[in-house]
Structure formats: structure tokens, C-alpha cells
Amino acid sequence: MQIKSFTFNPFQTNCYVLSDSAEAVIVDPSASSDAEMRVIREYIDTAGLTVKHVLLTHAHIDHIFGVADACSYFDVGYLMHRSDLLLMQGAAEQGRLFGVEIDQPGEPAGFLDEDSTIAVGGEQLTILHTPGHSPGSITFVADGGEVAVAGDVLFAGSIGRTDLWQGSLPVLMRSIFDKLVPLGEQTRVLPGHGPATTVGVELQSNPFLTGSYELK
To answer: How many Cβ atoms from other residues are within 10 Å of residue 195's Cβ?
Structure first.
């Protein structure tokens, strides 16, 4: 599977285009301006890709800026976990809280659950429900477990914040240890912010995972 990453908006949020055999999905269209959205469009159009879905790791505002635009331009719907639906329906309110504008997306085309799969060309994405940062956070696992597009669950050297609506540090840690760690140390983690890492590197050096951080 081919993976192209972009970083957009004032929150420096990663967007990923995953493709195989001329089919593609856009994960977290975080483009917050016409100029940023054109970058996604031009990449996909130049590569001759057909977008099948827009996929969301979760529905915090920095990950959904470009949902309405991407769905309209590529004539597709977006898919997410049902537990983040209230966040999505409150996108405009999220924007007001952060002092930014966002086009309110319509209703999702469907919902993704644990162990759901999505075909992209000849490849399959498997969904893991990984709550804690938000109640509906999910991770997209590609290439037979070698890649995990994890949103704001696990970062290089850190983890997602848990002080937002229905966030929970114990729940997030269980998601990491019960869902991501079993994928294997070689699994490449593509986070919602910052550089890529691997499960093995984080087990060795991430203070939240090594035991040097005490879960209270």
C-alpha cells in the first residue's frame, strides 16, 4: 500500500492518503484552507487515484477541517466510529471554542466498528477501536499489521491528551497496550501529529510506556 502524508492547519495535524491499484482513502482530511485542500486534490488527481472513502480516526476539530470539502470534491461519504458522532455534530461549536471556522460536515455515510474492514484496491484496512483520547478514536491497520494509522492515540515520545470531552487516561493506556502493542514491535505508527515511529521504539523510550511514568 502506498501512503502519502501531509501536515495541515494551525494545529499541525497529519493527513494521510492510502492507496493501492488506483483506489484511495483519505484519513483525517485536516486541510483548513483552500490552498491546503488543493494540495490533496492535486496529489490525488495527478496520481490518477479514485477516492473511495474519507475516513476519520476521530472527530476533534483539527482532524475534520476538510471533511466537507473532500467529500464534496471527490463525491464520497465519510466513515467514523459512532461514539464520536456528537463531536462531529458539534463541529461548528468546536470551531467557536478554538476561535476558528469550519464548514459543518453532513451526517456520516456509515460507522466503523472493531474489526471492520475496508478494501482499498487489493489491500484491506482493519479497524481497531482505541478510545481514551476520544470515545470514538479508531486506528486503521494496513499491510497485515505492519502499519497503524493511529490518530491521537500514540505519538513519538508521548500519547494523546485525555483532558478533552470523555477522554480517559486509563482507557487510553489500555487501548495502547491491548490494541497497538500486540501488533508487534515492528509496526510503524503513523500518528495524528508529529513524526512516524514504531511500537518497539515507543516501548523502549516513551515514558508513558516504559514504566517510568506511573499511571494514577
So the answer is: 12
Q: Which residues fall within 8 angstroms of residue 137, CB to CB, at 6 or more apart?
A: 57, 58, 81, 84, 129, 130, 131, 151, 152, 153, 160, 175
The beta strands (E) that lie in the chain are given as: 2-8, 13-20, 23-27, 50-55, 78-80, 110-111, 117-120, 123-129, 138-142, 147-151, 154-155, 158-159, 188-191, 197-198
Sequence-distant (≥ 6) Cβ neighbours of residue 129 within 8 angstroms: 81, 113, 114, 136, 137, 138, 175, 179
Q: Are 39 and 14 a contacting pair, CB within 8 Å?
A: no
Q: Enumerate the β-bridge partners of residue 15.
A: 6
Each residue's pLDDT tens digit, 66-105: 999 999 999 999 999 999 999 999 998 888 888 888 888 9
According to DSSP, the β-strands at 110-111 and 188-191 are unpaired
| Domain 2-205 CATH superfamily | Ribonuclease Z/Hydroxyacylglutathione hydrolase-like (3.60.15.10)
**pLDDT, tens only, 109-155:** 999 999 899 999 999 999 999 999 999 999 999 988 999 999 999 99
Residue with cell 508529529: 194
| Nearest CA among 163, 173, 175 for reference residue 214 | 173
pLDDT in tens, 11-55: 999 999 999 999 999 999 999 999 999 999 999 999 999 999 999
123, 149 Cβ separation under 8 angstroms: no
Domain ranges of the chain: 2-205
